[in-house]
Amino acid sequence: KGLAIVTTRCDGIPEDFVEGETGLLVDPGDSAGMADSLERLINDNDLRRKLAQRVQEDYPKRFSFEQMKSGVQSVIAGL
Questions:
Q1: Phi, psi of 26 (to 5 degrees)
Q2: Which end of the chain has fewer CB atoms at under 10 Å, N or C?
Q3: Which residues contact 59 (CB under 8 A, 6 or more apart)?
């Protein structure tokens, strides 16, 4: 179930994914790095499954409505 993530290290994305744990990250504009990461996932079933499973477990814990609400409330409280 789910998909393994390959994305770039731009904006807030490196804060959302852990390299090799919840996704594969490449530098913006690095087409060779993107191709290598995609090839890795195509050829490594275990890695692909591990990344897909871990991101499904991790992302909802950190970005659920309750987590986002709590984060906004803490920012507002600090104003």
A1: -130, 155
A2: C
A3: 16, 22
User: How far is CA 42 from each of CA 26, 48, 59, 64, 72, rounded to the nearest angstrom?
Assistant: 16, 8, 23, 30, 39
Beta-bridge partner residues of 26: 8
Torsion sign over Cα 59, 60, 64, 70? negative
Find out whether 23 and 59 touch, Cβ atoms under 8 Å. Answer: no
Please indicate, yes or no, whether the overall pTM of this predicted structure exceeds 0.85. no
Closest by Cα among 10, 7, 12, 3 to 50: 3
